[in-house]
Amino acid sequence: MRLVAVGLAVLTVLLVLSGPQRVRRPASGSLLARLLRPGPGVAVLVAAVVGGLLVVVDGTRLLLALVLVGIGLAVGVLVRRGRVARAAALRQAFVVEVCESLVGELRAGQPLVAGLEHCLDVWVDFEPVVAAARLSADVPEALRRLSSRPGAEGLREIASAWQVSERSGAGLAAALSQVARTARSRQSTRHLVRGELASAQATARLVAGLPLVSLAMSAGIGGSPWHFLLGTAFGITCLGGGALFAFLGLLWIDRIARAVLRT
């Protein structure tokens, strides 16, 4: 059993370390928050937890502890994906509001820099673009850099409209107005699709939680499902397998939903 645990720990570390390396901003926040981010920090944390389990427990308890650690990591992945999705949806709304706000400011006769500064009241993260405009730098490039954040992809269309206006001499307000109408229409469609997907995602979560209801009902009529699942090697294996399939099912539904929203 110890060999199995060591193998799982090594495999986990290798999988985390072999993942794609991404350029990240300097770490911020608490030490625990930095450790929980994907990367070597997670590998070190998992290795430390598994190493501690090897010292403290063995046999069936070790297997149960590993399953519970795996369930905890799976829940953390699902929670993190949900937070990322909500943040992306919020940025999508901010992009539309920023575009419409800038169009309104330009049509009201406000200078370009003043109009961009007013957009900060809508979206604070728009500061790099405003700074580029103040310094007479490349505003479209600043927009494209900001568009690399999940949900802010619509800024690329604003950057393209900005460049077309500069090169052709056409009014920026007219070009951005068309971009704003398209973005608003796309957002309305996205809201409709997200509402249709919500029922399927809720059903998937309900199905994933039904085994817990069945276990509670079985315990209520005098059965001993918890002893089987938590006290025997075969039961713990069933628990791990069921949790794995539930996690994969929720992940699959989430990937389908994201693919639909992207298209």
Set out the fold topology.
Blueprint: H1 2-17, H2 31-35, H3 40-56, H4 59-107, H5 112-119, H6 127-134, H7 139-146, H8 155-168, H9 172-220, H10 225-231, H11 233-262
Helix pairs in contact: 1-3, 3-4, 4-5, 4-9, 4-11, 5-6, 6-7, 7-8, 8-9, 9-11, 10-11
Folded structure, characterized:
- The chain is mainly alpha-helical.
- The two termini are 47 Å apart.
- The chain is elongated and about 80 Å long.
- It has helices at residues 2-17, 31-35, 40-56, 59-107, 112-119, 127-134, 139-146, 155-168, 172-220, 225-231, 233-262.
- The chain contains eleven helices and no strands.
Q: What is the average per-residue confidence, as pLDDT, rounded to a whole number?
A: 80
Helix content: over 70%
The poorly predicted ranges are: 16-32
Q: Strand pairing plus helix content: what structural class?
A: mainly alpha
Order of helices and strands: HHHHHHHHHHH
Total number of helices: 11
User: Which band does the percent of strand residues land in?
Assistant: under 5%
Query: How many beta-strand elements?
Result: 0
Describe the sheet with the most strands. Answer: none
Quote the distance from N terminus to C terminus: 47 Å
Outline type? elongated
- The gyration radius over C-alpha positions equals 25 Å
What would you say about this model in short?
The protein has 263 residues and is mainly alpha-helical. Helix content is 80%, strand content 0%.
